[in-house]
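Allow me, if you will, to draw on your knowledge of protein folds for a short while. I have a record of one protein: its chain in single-letter code and its fold written as C-alpha cells. I should value your view on which stretches of the chain appear to form regular backbone elements. Thank you for your consideration; the sequence and its C-alpha cells are set out here:
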Amino acid sequence: MPFERAPHLVFWELTKSCPLTCKHCRADSIKNQLPDELTTVEGKKLLEEIAEFGKIVVVFTGGDPLNREDVFELMDYAKSLGLVVSIAPAPSYNLTEENIKRIRNSALYMSISLDGAKETTHNWLRGFGSYKYAIQGIKLGLKYGIQVQVNTVVWKKSYEELPEMVKLLKDLGVKVWEVFFLIPVGRGSIELDIPREKYKEVINFLIEASKYDLVVRTVEAPFFRRAKLEGGSSSELSKRLRDLLGEPTGKLDKSIMPTRDGSGVIFVSYNGEVYPSGFLPLSLGNVREKSIVEIYRNSELLRMIREGKLKGKCGQCQYTNICGGSRARAYAVYNDPLEEDPACPY
C-alpha cells in the first residue's frame, strides 16, 4: 500500500484567523485568533512527531498563517528537524517584501491563491482587493528564489478564464499550478461550482496545459491522473489555449503521485483535531491526546482508504489505486467517506 507508514503531505492549519472572508473557503476563517489554538510549545511537539514520519512536506496553512506571530519560529523549527517546509499564506496585505524575505529563509515552497485571470473575478470571490496582493506575492516570491505554486479554484466565473489563467502564469514565470475542485464545506457553496458535465472538459484542458512547461496538479479531482494516463482529448478550452500560446512545446508528464484524502495526506486543525484532509471534516483524534503518527498509522478509516476498500464505482474501478476518487466529496454528498465520488466523469 502506498503511504501505509507515512504521508507525503501534512497540512497544519496554524490559525483560523485571516484578513479575508472568501466566499468558498473551507476554513470558515475569522478575524481574530481563537483561544484554543495549539500553542508554540504544543506546535513544536507536533512538528517533532511529524518528523518521525521522515523527511516529508509540512504545509503551514490557515486562515492566514502569517497572522501568527510565531509562524517563522515554527517554520524554522520544522526546518531544523529535517522537514520540507511549505507555507500557504492568504493573498493579503501580509505578503510584504519583508515577510517574503523571511519566508525565503524558512521555507522551500510557497503557494498563493489566484482564482481568476481577471482582477474582478478573483476579487469577487476573495474580496478586499486581494488580486493585487496575490500578484505581488507571486512576483516577490519568484524574485527571492522561492518555489512558488499558484492555487486556483475552478468555479463558475474562473472556468471561462482558464486559458487566460495559464497565459498569466506563463507571463509571471510560475512553474507549478494546483487546481482545486469545489467541495461544499465551510463557506464553500455548491452554487459556485461548475456543472458536473463540465468537469471532464476541465480535466482535458489541464492535460493540455501541462504540455506548456507547467506542472499541473489537482485537489479533490484525482480522476485527473486517469486522464493523464489515457492522454486526454481536445476541448474548446484547449483550442483557446492554443490560440493564446501556440502549439504545446512539451510532452505530457504521466508521472503519478497517488495521494488522496487520508492516504498520503493528513490535516491538523488549529486546535489539534486531525482529519483525513482539510475538506473532509471527520475527526480521527487530537494531537493533544495522541501522536499524529499513531493516528495516521492506526486509524481504521484511513487503513480502508489506503487499501482502496471503497464502495460503488470507485470500489470496482481499475484505477482505484492511482485515483480512488475524492473521499471528501463522497462524505459531503453521501455522508460516507468510502462511497463513490459523485463527480467522477468516467
Q: What stands out?
A: The mean pLDDT is 94. The chain has one domain: 9-299. The two ends are 24 Å apart (CA to CA).
